[in-house]
Write a structure and sequence with these properties.
binds NADP nicotinamide-adenine-dinucleotide phosphate; alpha/beta; two-stranded antiparallel sheet; about 325 residues; TIM Barrel; globular
Amino acid sequence: MKTRFLRDIEVSEVGMGCMAFSHGYGKIPDEGYSIEAIRNAYDHGCTFFDTAEVYSPNLSGIGHNERIVGKALEPFRNYVVIATKLFVDSSAVRRSGSVYHAVRDHLEASMDRLRTDMIDLYYLHRQSNISVENIAEAMGRLIDDGMIRGWGLSQVDVDIIDRAQRVTPLSAIQNIYSMVERDVEKAVAPYCLENNIGIVPFSPIASGLLSGKITPQTQFERNDDVRNWVPQLSRRNIKGNQPIVEMLKDFAEQKNATPAQILLAWMLYKYPNVVPIPGSKNKERIVENLNASQVEMTDAEFTALENALNQHKVYGHRGFGGF
Ligand SMILES: NC(=O)c1ccc[n+]([C@@H]2O[C@H](COP(=O)([O-])OP(=O)(O)OC[C@H]3O[C@@H](n4cnc5c(N)ncnc54)[C@H](OP(=O)(O)O)[C@@H]3O)[C@@H](O)[C@H]2O)c1
């Protein structure tokens, strides 16, 4: 697969979001299947795997997902890029003695679960009552220590990014970005392009909406399923957003591709520093998404898609706030 750079970290141009093996999309597969799916993604060219310390069933407990990812990637650890995320606040700082030590304590626990002595990309998952400058300084020290290669922020606007960037240059920003969540395009993407920061869109398929497989009748699962509150996925908004889904389906048919592949190819075409991390707990759909890298889009096709998109109203908006 083609590769891209998140500052100086080289990754496959489509990565893999591993969250759903532990949290967020209902029943989780058994560990054996999840490991097989991750290894199969690697066999199909994926070298960029996204997890977080907090991804565990119902978000209760820590590390379920990191343990699976660590076990799956152990045989070829040196050939892949692992990204994980932490959350720290002032109570962790009180316990550990300093911001640096608090971040380092979280990092060491993640490294242990991920079976590695170095994390390639370490994100702050959400802002807390610790200033971003203090976090940036701690991350800079951890880079100097050789414990992480680069660092990033998630769900942030450009003012926070700029404050952090001035202290320790960022490798990537992981924000929500899809055809129905385009806030990134306003200020974050231009800033990141100018400052050599990668953009890692999460929920690029709008939690499944844009795959074309969700209808107003779709029943989401009762337990640990974010689709029950994703704004574009209320019954009324699924209906409102159908014209976008239909437009994408038509476009995909003409290109002999799937809607998920087209929307990923669209963002890859649009920004040279974008590396999406679609999430799926299904082995075949993971490969389908990775193969978006093979979809060639022409200038004319991109413009047609962009124009069509701009004509549609989007129903539901999540933005960078909240969890
Ligand atoms: N930084 C953050 O705060 C944050 C927040 C959320 C997520 N993330 C990261 O981003 C990754 C991706 O986000 P996400 O999983 O929320 O959203 P997503 O990638 O937009 O969508 C996932 C949903 O789409 C379905 N899907 C995926 N590929 C499909 C395909 N080709 N055809 C049909 N359906 C398909 C999946 O179902 P199946 O499983 O049934 O295929 C699942 O229900 C996560 O794994 C996680 O690593 C980060």
